[in-house]
């Protein structure tokens, strides 16, 4: 094994780094799928045809849509993706697969924008509320689960729609990742502490020492990918840049993905984001964070690292006051929305719609993309 990342060279950055391996999230996920919490969603899925009929959904979707396209509705947070997804699903006989990295978690409700059951209009939803918040569910985990759901849905003669703004999830489905070790929670916590204390640029300088080729391709502000590249180096002793050519072949569904992205007016989007953040705190976000911590969910987990939850943790620790937590959450989410738009602009084959997904005109434009003139 290449050892140039191990030994004394690490001491400049980490003291007593814990290299303990944790069980793979997939193993714990299998147990979560058997929980009573998840069974409610499984039951709802098995009643898909009955729900669709009762709610006026046209289950006789045109065959060409099912055969040629796996529809993905993406865009920035608060842009109305869920509303558009439900509208299209009702019209083409579809079922929705969640593509949001926070909505997968059980018990994480207030700041997740999960669509209430009564607002789903009989459209079955999948991969929501099925992972313990203590599990760091990965993009690769989601891609495996999504492929299974697509196959199940299409066997029922329905169309699958991927709906959500986590671009990394969608990329994992279109271009699968190479095998990598499970997350070392202690190492991630140390890197996170360094980032918060010294800034993301410091992490990027660390990566330049470990893997110059990968560092040259990543922006210093792209700290999630920078941090993961450092973790990979420290856990395996190899640069991540040398592993990327070993990616497996994309699944058969990847070539059928049709991506529709929402791009609403920026000022209106930010206004919605600000209003939503205020509503989350007013509706008990801090109490929800306190409950999750009391139940043993790690403060550095993916679930509590989500927007709003992270600032709630800081408030409960006395690191900021409530007004500051709300203000910072608004800023966090606005910056996240900008990153989402930038991410999808760099994805190939995206069809953009100017407006919000709950706008009837935008819904008609999206439906027209599924039925091109003369098609």
Brief sketch in words of this structure:
With 375 residues, the chain is an alpha/beta fold. The chain is built from 16 helices and 6 strands.
How would you describe this protein?
This protein is of the alpha/beta class and 375 residues long. The chain folds into three domains: 7-17 and 181-246, Histone, subunit A (Orthogonal Bundle), CATH 1.10.20; 25-177 and 249-266 and 352-370, 3-Layer(aba) Sandwich (Rossmann fold); 269-337, Orthogonal Bundle (Helix Hairpins). It has 16 helices and six strands. It has a six-stranded parallel β-sheet, sandwiched between helices. It is globular and about 50 Å long. Residues 1-64 have low confidence and may be disordered.
Lateral arrangement of strands in the main beta sheet? 3-2-4-1-5-6
- Beta fraction of the residues? 5-15%
The largest sheet, given as strand count, sense and whether it forms a barrel, is: 6 strands, parallel
The SSE order reads: HHHHEHEEHEHHHHHEHHHHEH
- What's the total number of strands? 6
Q: What is the oligomeric state here? A: single chain
CATH class of the largest domain: Alpha Beta
- CATH topology name of the largest domain, in short, is Rossmann fold
Poorly predicted runs are 1-64
Helix fraction bin: 40-55%
Query: Number of helical segments?
Result: 16
Class by helix and strand content?
Answer: alpha/beta
What integer is the average pLDDT? 83
Q: What is the overall silhouette?
A: globular
């Amino acid at each position: 094994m290449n050892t140039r990342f191990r030994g004394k060279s690490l001491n400049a950055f980490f003291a007593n780094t814990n290299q303990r391996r944790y069980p793979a999230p997939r193993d714990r996920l299998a147990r979560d799928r058997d929980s009573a919490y998840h069974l409610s969603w499984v039951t709802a899925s098995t009643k898909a045809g009955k729900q669709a009929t009762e709610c006026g959904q046209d289950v006789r979707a045109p065959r060409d849509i099912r055969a040629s396209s796996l529809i993905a509705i993406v865009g920035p947070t608060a842009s109305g993706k869920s509303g558009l997804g439900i509208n299209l699903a009702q019209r083409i006989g579809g079922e929705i697969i969640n593509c949001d990295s926070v909505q997968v978690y059980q018990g994480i409700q207030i700041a997740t924008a999960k669509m209430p059951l009564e607002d789903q209009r009989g459209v079955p939803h999948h991969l929501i509320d099925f992972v313990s918040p203590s599990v760091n569910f990965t993009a690769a985990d989601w891609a495996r689960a999504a492929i299974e759901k697509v196959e199940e849905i299409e066997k029922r003669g329905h169309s699958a729609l991927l709906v959500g703004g986590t671009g990394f999830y969608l990329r994992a489905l279109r271009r699968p990742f190479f095998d990598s070790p499970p997350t070392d929670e202690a190492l991630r916590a140390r890197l996170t502490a360094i980032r918060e204390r010294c800034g993301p640029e410091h992490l990027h300088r660390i990566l330049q020492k470990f893997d110059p080729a990968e560092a040259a391709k990543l922006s210093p502000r792209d700290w999630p990918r920078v941090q993961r590249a450092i973790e990979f180096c420290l856990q395996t002793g190899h640069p991540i840049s040398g592993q990327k050519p070993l990616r497996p072949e994309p699944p058969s569904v990847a070539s059928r993905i049709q991506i529709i992205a929402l791009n609403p007016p920026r000022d209106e989007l930010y206004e919605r984001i600000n209003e939503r953040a205020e509503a989350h705190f007013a509706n008990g976000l801090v109490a929800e964070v306190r409950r999750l911590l009391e139940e043993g969910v790690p403060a550095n987990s993916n679930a509590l690292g989500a927007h709003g939850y992270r600032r709630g943790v800081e408030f409960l620790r006395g690191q900021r006051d409530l007004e500051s937590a709300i203000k910072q959450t608004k800023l966090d989410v606005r910056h996240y929305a900008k990153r989402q738009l930038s991410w999808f602009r760099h994805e190939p084959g995206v069809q953009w719609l100017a407006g919000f997904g709950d706008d009837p005109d935008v819904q008609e434009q999206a439906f027209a993309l599924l039925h091109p003139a003369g098609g």
